[in-house]
Amino acid sequence: MLLSLMIFIPLLGMIAVLLLPRESEELIKRVTLLFTLIPLALAVALFISYDRSTAGTQYVVNVPWIQAFNIQYHIGIDGLSVTLLLLTALLGPICVIASWRNIEKGIKAYMALFLLLETGMLGFFVALDLFLFYVFFELTLLPMYFLIGIWGGPRREYAAIKFFLYTLFGSVLMLVAMIAVYLNSGAPGARTFDIPTLITLASTEGHALHNLNFQIWVFLGFFVGFAVKVPIFPFHTWLPDAHVEAPTAISVILAGILLKMGTYGLVRVNMAMFPQGLDFFCNGMGFWGNSLALLGFINIVYGSFCALAQTDFKKLVAYSSIGHMGFVILGLSARNDSGITGAILQMFNHGVISAMLFLLVGVLYDRAHHREINGFGGLGTKMPVYTGITTLAFMASLGLPGLSGFVGEALSLLGAYDKFKLLTILSTIGIVVGAAYFLWTLQRVFLGTLNPKYEDLPEINGREILTLVPLGILTIVLGVWPNFAIDMFRESVTSLIGVLQVN
Amino acid sequence: MVVFLISLILLCPLAAFTVFGLLGLGNRSFQRQDYLSTAAMLIALVCSFLLLGEIAPDPEPHTVNWISLGGVTFSMGFYLDSVTAIMLIVVTLVSSLVHIFSMGYMHGDPRYPRFFAYLSLFSFSMLFLVVSDNLLGIYIGWELVGLCSYLLIGFWFEKNSAADACKKAFLTTRVGDVGMFIGMMMLFTKFKTLSLYGEGGIFALVASLNTGDMVWLSIAGVLIFCGAIGKSAQVPLHTWLPDAMEGPTPVSALIHAATMVAAGVYLTARMFPILTETSSLVIAYIGGITALIAATIAIVRFDIKRVLAYSTISQLGYMMLGIGAGSYVAGLFHLTTHAFFKALLFLGSGSVIHAFHAMHAHAHDDENDHAHDTHGHEHDDHALVHDHGSEIPPDQDMRNMGGLRHKMPITFVTMLIATLSISGVPFVFSGFWSKDAILGGVLGRAMEWNSVHHYLLFGIALCAAGITAFYMFRLIFMTFFGEPRNQEMHDMAHESPKSMTVPLLILAVLSLPVVNILWFNENYVQPPEQPHLHAPQHAYASPDSKMDEARGTLSLFGVSEAVAAEESGHDTHGAHADDGHHGHGPAHTIAMVLSICAAGLGIFLSWLFYHKRTLSAESVATTFRPLYNLFWHKYYFDEFYDGVLVALTVWKARLFAQFDGTVVDGIVNGVGKVTRDFLAVFIGVFDNRVVDGAVNRVAEVTWAIGGRVRRIQTGAIQTYLFVVIAGIVLLILIFRAL
Q1: Which has the least CB within 10 A, B44, B117, B649, B668?
Q2: Residue A312 gets which letter from DSSP?
Q3: What is the pTM of this model?
Q4: Rounded to 5°, angle at Cα A283 from A282 and A285
Q5: What is the pLDDT, as a whole number, of residue B529?
Q6: Mean pLDDT across the stretch A56-68?
Q7: CB contact under 8 A, A161 and B716
């Protein structure tokens, strides 16, 4: 019940916003904030009451939905989903606050779409029925399309369409794979979309789903769908465009949550449901056996080098996301304790840190109305607080120990080294290049002599600090005491590894 | 008690920084941050002394589980042995003195409170590194001190040269850190832990490795050492340290001379038990080569701080050489003596620079608020002069100095003491003893193993010792003796205030052999065992079989294990060398005589060149032009890195980005276009019949929501919505069919 409430309260909020008159903008914003704060409050309750000692799904609701196809409204959370659910609930109100002043037109539609988006994201992370999962997956797509396409920058239409097309391409393949799984799940009438059931079936000796060849193909179908979201090279080119054009808050959601939907899907479906298929792609033997880790490596190095060459602040952060998501892929492909834990931590931490980065870029853009890195210089003297927070976020993102980014990266690498020695060693290039582009940016924007054009740039204001402080605290706390997060999903990881080993 | 004291040592500076960080959010700062930070450091200093009494004879780490996974646990904890305790005292002592010195030196700086907050953060990180009982903790402290170094080198970030230098420092050390991290991954994969001590620790597990793993262990050892190469500025990653002199001088003293750069030596010493012959030799060579290269570069520098920077690199090379040659105690001994005399040299140079600053202030400004101008003036000069990074600010240029001994007597005397110490002038200066211990250790191993490598290394070290004496006295002669070269600057110079001279005096006392007490007590610091380091086959002394026999006999007679261990220790890892500083053994005597000769020769030549002027440095430079050029251009390391490595990296980045924009994205756009054209035809067939109504309805809703949707509704959106719906329809059709 708690979960259903959490998912659908933003939807309720959307209806409420739509009923309000277009002119009362302040009211619309407050109502939206309220309807994002309620899920956050519920998330806090969830954080407190969630039972960390079990790998089983909790807060389960399972009622028939479309009985003709044995589709259920089956939701519940385990360690992985609760982590990302908390992240989503946290970023919701932060994004609303970040949109407070800089959405100039159509605030009503914007907020309504945002709330719809939040429902889609929350629902995606709790869905335990493949069909429901897919519905929520698609549900995030439409609001995102409009949010970028209407409120974005100059090339918003191109970016929105590209984003939409890419995701759609992925989700069509996913749909096909999903149907294939459904059709193979049993005799007519006994077929199911239920994820836990499918996981059991796929591990059952002699079942149609327990078949290497079959698993490889459906693995690929789902994989492409999720790879677009992550994004994994070569399906990543929508990301820089979408980020550059999207308004600040939408970039935050995009990097913070939408990318995680891809990696979450990889764990929830590809890993748990098709362990044989997974094994084929990361058993370390031959080309295919190294392919998943190879993609992780390419993401890390390719993303980092591309970031180094960027002169648009936002594009740089976007490419850095590609690099950082590579650590998730690398960690997952290791299929061991430290690798998977590192990957999940990295998902969460990247959500927090990249949200900070995009918020920070937004702060600067709102003042200077451009994002050209070389067009600044010496802002450190003018905006010491802003500089300090940016330095914190950069350091967290480049993996400075003591801040959260390090833990995920280090654990992923430690885990991956066990299985893929050469690829992991080569991936560490990303650590150096990551430091290079962030420090270079820091220098070009904040250090050196002050660019006289920005003599009277105002310092970051209270509202903006309010959006950054919770994220900054999380960055420090999880860097100092990662067990806060790991406690949530330790058992789930152990049980996932159990599933992987049986097969 | 141990845990309490160590926690207090760590928390005090951390709290001082936290105050700054929290207030900083409101763009405010605590005006007495200097008192707060200094007080925190003094508490830590007292606690460090108290800890001396708490060292257990057989220390166990105090740990907590930091990251617990299903199968593996990463712990964090403290480990206190005599080496930790000594390091704690060195760090807290130098840090406290630098805090006090900075109150004078940084007075009036617009970011004065921030400076002290950074010093606190640095002290916390450094102390965390020192007390950590495991590699992960060391790595965390390691990177955090790197961050502080970055922040402090770039403290005057308006100067472009400072902004360049801090970035360079961070990135160069990070290259080394990645090597270290790879080494950690190797160790972790093998042992499933990163803890060093205790039963399940790496050191215990390493001992049980067999000879088949020696290549692996050597590689792991060298990789861990890579971190030390970066942090301790060893060749080839040394180039960041001279540039780091862009930071305020107290920072150079604390971070880039006494403590942080010595962390690499500390790490290497900590990893002593995993070193094999090969990795030890690599370390010794890197150290030896660094000692020599840096010393030769120092000869031709005119910037007083750069001379000291190269001398630091050179001395760090010495320490590495000592540890690589098995002289564990000697290496750490030199670390402590160097920390004090080098901090003194830097603070002394700071005192000189401060004197010249003040001159400008008096000349251009009324006397109050002069230090504020101090720093402003430095910027102006840098902005003008510092275009190529190789220009020297006038207040640091030794060619503007001379005859300062009368003007600044305290600075002169204290710096002279430090110089005598670093040059290895015998008996009454601490540096002599520690440097001699290393030289004796290297020669000892050379004789014991009859190893050509170690004879060669001894020769290198001896040369470096002579050169060190030469350039250090060159510095003293050029700065404090002779006639003033710049009369205007000279007239204005004056002795520094008490807050600066008192730390100088304390450090001067510490450059006398008082600190040696800790090391003279034979039993105080014991070198750990090196289970995988064996004398080569052709060595004269103690073939393995004989040694085992001896050990067997001893235990037969019921002699305690400890004695047996120590005996074997003497034989296997050259504890002769470690006895070096007690003044025993032929190797030590030879080394001592030779090193006194080298130092004497260096000082004598320096006197001839720079004081008596019977020899002309210019004519020698002309005679040996190619060699002089090599030294002057610092062996072209910077040219190579900037011109080749950095350029290649940037080029590669641009290439990748271009590839991404044209090839990858080009394919995507192409596919997108083809698909869209195809779908347009597709829709033409099905649109009217199947989904028209649905599409229109959805479109209506979206129009209502967006209002502005129409502009992007170029028909494309219908296509996409169509595909979604088509997908679902397809799904339903398939289900129907089944």
Answers
A1: B649
A2: B
A3: 0.88
A4: 110
A5: 80
A6: 89
A7: yes
